[in-house]
Design goal:
Its EC number is 2.4.1.131. It is a single-pass membrane protein. This is GDP-Man:Man(3)GlcNAc(2)-PP-Dol alpha-1,2-mannosyltransferase. It comes from Steccherinum ochraceum. By secondary structure, the protein is α/β, with parallel strands linked by helices. It is built from 20 helices and 13 strands. It folds into 2 domains: about 280 residues, Rossmann fold (3-Layer(aba) Sandwich), CATH 3.40.50; about 190 residues, Rossmann fold. Strands 3-2-1-4-5-6-7 form a 7-stranded parallel beta sheet, sandwiched between helices. Strands 10-9-8-11-12-13 form a 6-stranded parallel beta sheet, sandwiched between helices. Helix 13 crosses helix 18. The longest helix is centred in the N-terminal third of the chain and has 42 residues.
Length: about 500
């Protein structure tokens, strides 16, 4: 009996020592932060800092040039115009670029001019911990733990007055609240785990997040389902730490609202019994957020709406970063199916072209582009396919001004800002029948269609052919409807209004 008392006493002493050491370390971080803030103000040339507040944006890939980055920069530009006392700080992992280089790319890619005087970058050196290749197994868990390490690095370098995650790393909320003791918020583009993912594993459906080796095995499927249940439980717990949550579409809102209200009685009981239940007591949010607010991503429609709607070239255009979930392979296969069914589209008089424009973030993306070129070569369509990597904003506009069709094949695309750009430019969209493009964007306007949906290479080919065979009057009417809807619903002004209505200032 005495040995058990000794062991228990030792454990208590060790735990107490660890808690005291952690508290001391946290206090040291907060003390050093005073010097960090003074250095920031000095670097920006601010002598009078009375009333100045710092809003920190956690966006490790801020230089990627995608739709998520447009949201970030539009929000910051809005703050610079309307909140002169706010300094925007971006926690970025783009250590290979300078502040001036990033701002120049923002201007070139999005035509957004930002003021350097109220903008600062805190560069993080552990971004590799949130990349797929660092976690070949248990990727979601690994990336989430990696994001917590990255947030720890961020808070050690500068503590803001309000923290906003704009990439979907909800597990960082715990670290920020532990160190900084400030409110946190989020603009979520895509849930880390969703009800769909749980259902696919439960039904043993093969997917890019559920390999054939797992879906074909009952034991592995049950093991993965338990892993997903545990992850969903703590993802929900993390999201509820936020004081406000904005999302980019009704599809994302549905999944985030489900997650915010997710409960698992068995895991609730286990959580209370395990040490983690005690450790997470300080993170309990007194008034957890119950629902997310939709703030549709902004689309700069001003330049796009100047393009003529008539006399478009026979170009099928894709605008998407070269990431796996964008499913460029499906685009190539759909184009191949179209040419197989309609060989006349390869003749000189009716020849069509598929142009894929997208950002390449790293070596993995570059390798992906080469693999796509190899697939196009195998399908014998390479002479009618063009790849444009990391195009400038003017070059992208040029293609939008002359393309006839916009192609998007991503399944469960959370929003689809590229689809909005298609429509505003007068390009008829053909998208996958899921996610934001199905529920929010390519929807009837005044009872008439604004584009097409499909689900397979064959149905995509049929939809592409349907656009190519529209009469001139039908084609012009659809382009006009698509543009009118996009401009009315997805403007920068609408985004800014919803961003302000989220109540973020109440937590500053």
């Amino acid at each position: 009996m005495g040995i058990y008392v000794l062991i228990a006493g030792t454990v208590v002493v060790l735990c107490t020592t660890a808690v005291v050491a952690l508290a001391s370390h946290l206090e040291a971080i907060r003390t050093r932060d005073k010097a960090h803030r003074e250095a920031l103000f000095h670097q920006l040339g601010l002598n009078d800092v009375t009333g100045k507040k710092i809003v920190g944006f956690f966006h490790p890939y801020c230089n990627a040039g995608g739709g998520g980055e447009r949201v970030l920069w539009t929000a910051i530009a809005f703050l610079q115009r309307t909140e002169p006392n706010i300094i925007s700080v971006i926690y970025s992992g783009d250590v290979d670029a300078t502040k001036d280089e990033i701002l120049a790319k923002v201007k070139a890619r999005f035509d957004i001019a930002l003021l350097p005087s109220s903008l600062h970058f805190v560069f993080l050196h552990k971004r590799n911990l949130i990349e797929d290749k660092s976690w070949p197994r248990f990727t979601m868990l690994g990336q989430s733990l990696g994001s917590m390490v990255l947030a720890w690095e961020a808070m050690n370098k500068l503590i803001p007055d309000l923290y906003i995650d704009t990439m979907g790393y909800a597990f960082t909320f715990h670290v920020v609240k532990l160190i900084a003791r400030i409110s946190v918020g989020s603009y979520t583009h895509y849930p880390t785990i969703s009800r769909n993912m749980l259902e696919r594993v439960s039904s043993r459906k093969q997917w890019h997040t559920n390999s054939d080796s797992v879906s074909s095995s009952s034991i592995l499927s049950q093991g993965k389902l338990l892993y997903y249940r545990l992850f969903m439980y703590y993802y929900s717990y993390s999201l509820r730490q936020a004081s406000f949550i904005m999302v980019n579409s009704s599809w994302t809102k549905g999944h985030i609202d489900y997650t915010l209200n997710y409960h698992d009685n068995l895991l609730d009981f286990a959580h209370l019994l395990l040490p983690i239940g005690i450790l997470t007591l300080p993170f309990r949010n007194g008034k957890p957020v119950k629902t997310a607010r939709i703030a549709y991503p902004p689309c700069d429609t001003r330049a796009l709406t100047e393009f003529p709607l008539e006399q478009r070239e026979r170009v099928i255009l894709s605008l998407a970063q070269f990431r796996p979930e964008k499913d460029h392979q499906a685009q190539l296969r759909a184009f191949h199916s179209l040419l197989q069914a309609h060989p006349e589209y390869s003749s000189s008089s009716h020849r069509i072209q598929l142009v894929l424009i997208g950002g390449s973030r790293n070596a993995d993306d570059a390798n992906r582009v080469e693999s796509l070129k190899a697939l196009a070569r195998t399908l014998n369509i390479l002479d009618q396919v063009r790849f444009i990597v990391n195009a400038s904003y003017p070059e992208m506009l040029q293609w939008l001004s002359k393309a006839s069709i916009g192609l998007s094949t991503m399944v469960d695309e959370h929003f689809g800002i590229n689809v909005v750009e298609f429509m505003a430019a007068g390009v008829i969209p053909v998208t996958h029948a899921s996610g934001g493009p199905l529920k929010d964007i390519v929807v009837p306007f005044n009872g008439q269609p604004t584009g097409y949906h499909a689900t397979s290479p064959e149905t995509f080919a049929e939809a592409l052919n349907a656009v190519l065979t529209l009469t001139p009057d039908e084609e012009l009417a659809m382009r006009s409807r698509a543009r009118t809807w996009a401009v009315q619903r997805f403007s920068e002004e609408e985004f800014e209004k919803e961003w302000d209505a989220s109540g973020w200032k109440d937590w500053l």
